[in-house]
Amino acid sequence: MRSVLSILFFAVLLLVGPGNVLRADSPLEKQMNQMRRSFKELKKAMEAPVEADKPKYLGWVADLKKASEEAKTMEPEKTEKVPAGEREAFLEGYRSKMAELIELTEELGKVIEAGKWTEAKGLIGQINQVQREGHQKYRAEEN
Ligand code: HEM
């Protein structure tokens, strides 16, 4: 029994990975994880939206917006790896991509408020796209 437990213990350690055991989430990662939580709920909800649940949806929109605004004030880890002369442009690009996300999120709130579900679904797709672009350009390789 004890050896089974030891094997399990080491298997878990391997899964977690030596790089992750001692590494705390950066403040930006924390905001991003918050964004993931509310966006995941919204994505799921917009597959079969219900008029009566609007207040709940708007709550998630507010959470996503708040976390995105916080994230916009922070710097990606990758910034350090960008040559000094290109850093300001890199950060400007990051902030403007985050601003796009915030704008789309505000728009999402408006169309949900108005019960325009087809438009809401379209905006979920656009947010997905901005997320993909943001991660391709601004997230460090090992993430
Ligand atoms: C709804 C949209 C988004 C969601 C749900 C989201 C979610 C996440 C999650 C869950 C992580 C952590 C993943 C990991 O463990 O590495 C992450 C990391 C990251 N995301 Fe996003 N993201 C979104 C949009 C964006 C956008 C638009 C940008 C850039 C403008 C961006 C830039 C980053 C960066 C730079 C990291 C790495 C953290 C760091 O460098 O400290 N994300 N994102």
Shape: flat
Number of helices: 6
Helix/strand-derived category reads mainly alpha
Q: What letter string, H or E per element, gives the SSE order?
A: HHHHHH
Number of domains: 1
CATH class: Mainly Alpha
Question: Could you provide a short overview of the structure?
Answer:
The protein has 143 residues and is an all-alpha fold. It has 6 helices and no strands.
Please supply descriptive tags for the structure shown above:
Four Helix Bundle (Hemerythrin (Met), subunit A); 74% helix; 143 residues; binds protoporphyrin IX containing FE; mainly alpha
Question: Topology, please?
Answer:
Blueprint: H1 2-16, H2 18-21, H3 27-45, H4 54-72, H5 87-113, H6 117-138
Helix pairs in contact: 3-4, 4-5, 5-6
Protoporphyrin IX containing FE binds next to helix 3, helix 5 and helix 6.
Give structural notes.
This protein is an all-alpha fold and 143 residues long. It is built from six helices and no strands. The chain has helices at residues 2-16, 18-21, 27-45, 54-72, 87-113, 117-138. The chain is flat and about 55 Å long. The mean pLDDT is 91. Protoporphyrin IX containing FE (HEM) binds at residues 26, 28-29, 32-33, 35-36, 39, 76-78, 94, 97-98, 101, 127, 130-131, 134-135, 138-140, 143.
